[in-house]
């Protein structure tokens, strides 16, 4: 099964025919179909399929002598953001299977296990915490908090993983699996315009986080309620959106309000409550923290005259990730000195780098667009990514 044949198999799964965007939320039918595809590809190659307690999967190519430790793990994620692109996540997984095929065709016999990982809920699109699967694996989130996370329909993570056949009380760090992995190298589509060559290597992931703003007012009739009698949470919310842009400009960061929930969300009803999420990222922790503080302050000032309350909760935060220098330089030397660049996007590699040496390969995206249907990588660059990943795996999996 060639790269393009695998790609063609996955392409239609969870794709919105009208927009071309993907809706592959963790443990929903399209993502379950992607998981089944992953297991089929592993079986097709005689790879050992491992499930950790958190819904993460690893397809293993073991050495002939049965070695199980010192593994080189690659892979990425299968889930998407709402209306996401085809490449964010799946490119790393399809490229990994294609790289294993290439090494086998060349008669390579790895001295170390090579694993292809598929991490659960990397986008946090269903339960709100990004990289939830790798955070649980790495011990970077309290399993009790994870169990209680809920999706838009009120289903808890515990219920959903239970229905998927997992034990919700077994979620959490898998020290045995982590102990068998020597390093992790994730291939990912580049999500900006910085890469002008087919393949690059990541230097860092900038600090980034997600915050939830809850505005509580008083629901009422849109037609019979005079302006002085209103406690409309939509107004301080509107200020918060503008304040986010202005704070980002002041602090040299980026801030996005991309998701909002209005209760009861009726055309002729003054909302009783508005919940909005802020995504803020930037080159330094203090700039990101200042951005959030300034948005919070602006929201509270705007809420006061409308007798609306404002609650702020940090849902996830990731400090700067500087990838392991030795591994980065080794990967770069294998690839012959490709560009090194930071990213503003979070990744499982960033989470795992707290527990083991991790590196990332980026594949050029000529559109520079991501988390949208226009996300793209040219066929020639996809294959350049496979060649690069194969060379890196071959190098790292030697004795
Ligand atoms: O949101 C991110 O940075 C990543 O795509 N999960
Ligand atoms: Mn993403
Ligand atoms: Mn991704």
Task: Name some characteristics of this structure.
single chain; 399 residues; alpha/beta; Aminopeptidase; Alpha-Beta Plaits; 2 domains; nine-stranded mixed beta sheet; four-stranded antiparallel beta sheet; 23% strand; elongated; binds (2S)-amino(hydroxy)ethanoic acid; binds manganese (II) ion; zinc; hydrolase; N-carbamoyl-L-amino-acid hydrolase
Short note summarizing the structure:
This protein is α/β, with parallel strands linked by helices and 399 residues long. It contains twelve helices and 15 strands.
Structure description:
With 399 residues, this protein is of the alpha/beta class. It folds into two domains: 3-205 and 320-396, Zn peptidases (Aminopeptidase), CATH 3.40.630.10; 208-318, Alpha-Beta Plaits, CATH 3.30.70. It is 34% helix and 23% strand. It is built from twelve helices and 15 strands. The protein has helices at 3-10, 29-44, 90-105, 132-138, 143-148, 157-163, 175-179, 234-251, 285-303, 325-334, 348-352, 379-396; strands at 48-51, 57-61, 71-77, 114-119, 181-189, 199-205, 208-216, 220-221, 254-263, 269-270, 273-281, 309-318, 321-322, 340-343, 358-363. Strands 1, 2, 3, 4, 5, 6, 13, 14 and 15 form a nine-stranded mixed sheet that branches. Strands 9-11-7-12 form a four-stranded antiparallel sheet, with helices on one face. It has a two-stranded antiparallel ribbon with strand order 8-10. Strand 3, helix 3 and strand 4 (114-119) form a beta-alpha-beta unit. The two termini are 28 Å apart. The model has no long low-confidence stretch (mean pLDDT 98). The structure holds (2S)-amino(hydroxy)ethanoic acid and manganese (II) ion (2 copies). InterPro entries: Amidase_Cbmase, Bact_exopeptidase_dim_dom, Peptidase_M20. Allantoate binds at residues 210, 268, 281.
